[in-house]
């Protein structure tokens, strides 16, 4: 077995591990070493950028399902590394992203408003859940260990015409309730309005 080989490009003699495999050569290794091969590749892609881009695009659309599956598989396999990469990127580009998001939001205000309205219409229970969660977490009323799926189901199963009500209100003068399943009940809007964040410690628990 061959242990070393001379690179046709830099003329250096290197160990075989420094050469890429290549089925079309006699000894099944590339003529140029890995380093030179990489340089050549870079040079090639720089000179043919447009052509390669076009080629990649065509491949992408012709193999849509395959590409998507590969991406998904890759993401699954490299979940931790990808998360870390995204986190690192965010840390490095925090300010830039903030500026970009702000600009984008300003430029697309109407579009975003419309999209959010559409989303709410399409997922009425879902958007109610998230509104409630956001409100509750703002008030620090939702413990982190609460089962969000259980909350979701309560909102999802709310009979039509009823509101989801916090038995002990999230905000009241005497006590503050939690956003947890056992503090939720279905109420008719009229009862809910009558209650209006009023908590009567004497009537509760009767
Ligand atoms: Zn070389």
SSE layout:
Elements (H helix, E strand, L loop, with lengths): L3 E3 L6 E3 L3 E3 L7 E5 H14 L1 H14 L1 H14 L1 H29 L1 H14 L1 H15 L9 H9 L6 E4 L17 E4 L1 H7 L11
Antiparallel strand pairs: 1-2, 3-4, 5-6
Bound molecules: zinc ion.
Explain this structure to me?
The protein is mostly helical and 206 residues long. It folds into three domains: 4-48, no CATH class; 64-107, no CATH class; 124-195, no CATH class. It has eight helices and six strands, in the order ββββαααααααββα. The protein has helices at residues 34-47, 49-62, 64-77, 79-107, 109-122, 124-138, 148-156, 189-195; strands at 4-6, 13-15, 19-21, 29-33, 163-166, 184-187. The strands form three sheets. A two-stranded antiparallel ribbon has the order 1-2. A two-stranded antiparallel ribbon has the order 3-4. Strand 3 (19-21) and strand 4 form a beta hairpin. Helix 5 packs across helix 6 (124-138) and helix 6 crosses helix 7. It is elongated, with a radius of gyration of 30 Å. Bound molecules: zinc ion (ZN). Zinc ion (ZN) binds next to strand 4 and helix 1.
Q: Please state the structural category.
A: mainly alpha
Based on CA inertia axes, which overall geometry fits? elongated
| Elements, N to C (H/E) | EEEEHHHHHHHEEH
Strand content: 5-15%
Q: Which stretches are poorly predicted, pLDDT < 50 over at least 5 residues?
A: none
Output the number of helix runs. Answer: 8
Major sheet size, sense and barrel closure = 2 strands, antiparallel
Distance between the termini: 88 Å
Mean model confidence by pLDDT: 84
């Amino acid at each position: 077995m061959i242990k070393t080989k001379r690179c046709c490009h830099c003329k250096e003699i290197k160990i075989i591990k420094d050469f890429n495999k290549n089925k079309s050569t006699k000894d099944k290794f590339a003529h140029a070493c890995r380093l030179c091969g990489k340089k050549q590749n870079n040079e090639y892609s720089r000179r043919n950028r447009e052509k390669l881009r076009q080629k990649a695009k065509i491949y992408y659309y012709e193999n849509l399902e395959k590409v998507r599956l590969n991406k998904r598989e890759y993401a699954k396999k490299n979940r931790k590394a990808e998360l870390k990469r995204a986190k690192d990127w965010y840390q490095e580009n925090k300010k830039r992203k903030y500026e970009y998001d702000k600009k984008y939001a300003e430029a697309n205000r109407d579009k975003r408003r419309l999209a959010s309205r559409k989303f709410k219409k399409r997922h009425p229970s879902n958007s109610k859940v998230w509104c409630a969660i956001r409100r509750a977490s703002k008030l620090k009323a939702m413990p982190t260990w609460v089962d969000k799926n259980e909350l979701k189901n309560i909102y999802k199963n709310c009979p039509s015409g009823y509101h989801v009500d916090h038995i002990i209100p999230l905000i009241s003068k005497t006590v503050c309730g939690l956003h947890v399943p056992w503090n939720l009940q279905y109420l008719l809007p009229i009862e809910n309005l009558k209650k209006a964040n009023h908590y009567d410690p004497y009537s509760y628990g009767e």
